[in-house]
Design goal:
single chain; 336 residues; alpha+beta; Tetrahydropterin Synthase, Chain A; four-stranded antiparallel β-sheet; rod-shaped; disordered C terminus
Length: 336
């Protein structure tokens, strides 16, 4: 409770006390009883009630969240040029009054959902897009009274600025801006751009009408039932096309994988064949070299000796051809 309210409360008690004393005086007079002390009480209570009422009517306490416009109610329709800020102020009792404005942010929401919007009915904005489609837009306008222009706001709108300015201007600007875009632009690539254009236009309008636009929120965009069904069918077709493309790509990858496996097996076979060929070549070269060395080391005596070694163990004597006059006895292998 602020001091002005307290004084007005005390003044009310004084008036009630004064009324009670006056009644008591009339009762005592009707009974021919003295009223000397009560007369003094009437005078004291009357002065106190008038003084408290006057002071209470002149003192005005403005809450920190408010400002007040001082209006002259006697002698014209004048308005003080400067509003009263938060704190305790003095106005001319009974000649002036205050009209309070909240300086807090206020939100006006236009929505199709009754529990979301300021209005209990469907308050969404119907818009015809550039390509002739019908869309429904839910939006919120967050604004505040401009403290520096509150007096002008009072002169122009009083307290009707929400219904008389905020709502109609917001709906009109949203319709005008949204109608410049196609439906697919609104819901995808151009949505942010459209929101910025609406915000700039509303900010300009509010500034001219002594309000401050804090923010504009594009809450939701809905299509007509027919267009929503068409969009759903299009999305299904795109998903099916993407699935088919995925399958084709998967088959390509499987074919490429099989080709690489076959190529690897072929390369392995070629490498193995080359290895075998090189091994055979090395073996042949080794055998040839061995034969060459063997041929180079052969002498008639060695050949004859190897020949003898190869004879059957049962042969004791061999005969030399007719050209040779000698018979070569075999060595006695049993001799110690």
């Amino acid at each position: 409770m602020n001091i002005s309210s307290l004084l007005q409360g005390i003044a009310s008690f004084a008036w009630v006390g004064l009324f009670g004393v006056v009644v008591a005086i009339f009762i005592r007079l009707s009974r021919n009883q003295p009223v000397k002390g009560l007369t003094t009480a009437v005078i004291v209570l009357l002065v106190a009630a008038l003084l408290l009422t006057t002071v209470g009517a002149g003192l005005v306490f403005i809450e920190p969240d408010d400002l007040a416009i001082v209006v002259t109610v006697i002698g014209g329709k004048g308005i003080r040029p400067e509003p009263l800020s938060a704190g305790l102020h003095w106005i001319v009792p009974f000649a002036e009054r205050v009209e309070r404005y909240s300086i807090l942010n206020q939100t006006y929401t236009m929505s199709s959902a009754a529990d979301e919007g300021t209005s209990i009915s469907d308050d969404s904005i119907q818009v015809r897009t550039k390509d002739g489609q019908q869309v429904y837009i839910d939006a919120s306008v967050i604004y505040a009274v401009d403290p520096l222009k509150a007096t002008d706001l009072y002169r122009t709108w009083r307290f009707n600025f929400q219904d008389g300015l905020v709502r109609p201007q917001a709906r009109g600007v949203i319709r005008d801006v949204a109608s410049q875009y196609g439906v697919e632009e609104i819901v995808s690539s151009k949505r942010a751009e459209m929101e910025l254009l609406i915000t700039a236009e509303l900010e300009n309008i509010f500034t001219k009408n002594n309000l401050v636009l804090r923010d504009f929120v594009l809450r939701n965009i809905r299509f007509s039932d027919e267009y929503a069904a068409a969009v759903e069918q299009k999305q299904i077709a795109e998903q099916q096309a993407q699935q088919a493309a995925f399958v084709v790509e998967q088959k390509k990858q499987e074919a490429e994988q099989a080709r690489q496996i076959a190529q690897g097996q072929a390369d392995a076979a070629v490498i193995a064949a080359k290895g075998e060929a090189e091994a055979l070549l090395i073996q042949a070269q080794a055998e040839a070299e061995a034969n060459r060395l063997l041929s180079a080391s052969l002498t008639p005596q060695l050949i004859q000796y190897q020949y003898v070694l190869k004879l059957s163990p049962g042969v004791d004597t061999i005969f030399i051809p007719s050209e040779n006059q000698f018979i070569l006895p075999l060595p006695n292998s049993t001799t110690p």
